[in-house]
Amino acid sequence: MMAQPHTATRSPSTLLPTGMGILAGLVTLLVVGLVLSPDGDNADDTVQIDPASASPLDFRPGTCFNFGLSGGVDDIAAIDCATPHQAEMAGQVSYPDANGPYPGADTLNSWAVEACDSVYRSFLGDDVLTTSLDGEAIYPDEINWVGSSRSANCYLTTLDGSLVTGTLADGAANYPRGERVIVSRLTPGDCFRAESGTDPFKLDSRSVVSLAACNEPHHGVFFGRDRLDFPAAAQFPEESLLTSATTAACARLFQSHFGVSVDGFNFRYWRPSLSSWSNSDRTVLCTILDNTLIEETFAPTNYRSLFDIEPGSCFQLGPEEKPSTLGIDDKVLPTLCDEEHVGQMIKGGHLGDDENEEFPGEADVKELAQSICFDALGDFLGAKPSSEQIEDFKFWRPNEYDWQTGDRRYACSYALDQPISDSLEADEA
What residue segments make up the domains of the chain, in order of their start? Predict the structure, then answer.
């Protein structure tokens, strides 16, 4: 049958564990929802802000501070950056609809996620996800909003809770991430391996993976993250709507990252769960993934659709592709026949010359395509095929919908479960 467009396989998960702050560009209400109470006090050793200011919302970029025992905003105290401290203010962002009514914590939380991202990058000199730092934010509650507070302050801490001495400004290189990261902190272009004994298809966004060079064996290639275009107050959408929005987002990211269409490739994604959705989580993470190691750099521009490769050409399958699921439009990697491969193209073409001819019926189309392909197989092998050769032989033909839309293509190919390093064609044996 003609292959239908591939859809991503969903691996359900909560994108962020509670209390992890901005990981993968997210803010959880537990951490970032530090809404400012109107009577907050600061310690007397404030040194990088206006001494008259008592509000963390007024902290300037480069202000270092600690949280008190309560962990609340009321206990935040500015401190000299030369003294070990917990956090540093990276910058402030202004809410775009400053004259409107209080938008609600969910909306402010969602807005702070996107608005602070560029602040962290500007302050650090690189994406916060490439470091061992975490980004969080403080935004106003309804009382402060009425009091004309319309901004959020974006600040940085260490992921492991260790203290910092000195400023973090332009300091991304001083805080590199380690070789093991959680999925939600992968960045586009990262190649990674699942931990030993872990099924890559069972990873969730909180799973720990090991970064790998892309020209060395790896299980996955992370190609992007995006935020779904749903209002902050929107109810958790129906499965079909959420899946459609997620796959569309990953398709755009694939095109942007690799420079080719995602059509014919398999990919996987993590998207918000019901529980994380209620915490303003709208982030999608997109990856190429396989449960067997990808041995070489994944370069989609080198792939071709099965139908488009020349007869006699040998090929390898793409990540997560199997001979049993291979379709005529799926992308394969042409390779030399004396190198390891699992497939070889035999013949392709179109059934019928009359564009107005009605669909002959499933059985007749199957019989016609099978007859053409079996004759081609005999010519290809230079002898009558054995039962083992027929078992690994596959052919594709149009279904009724394809036929009616003008797609009459057929294809004949070998697709093996085990790799070989030789051509099956008679004159190349």
Answer: 29-174, 186-294, 303-428
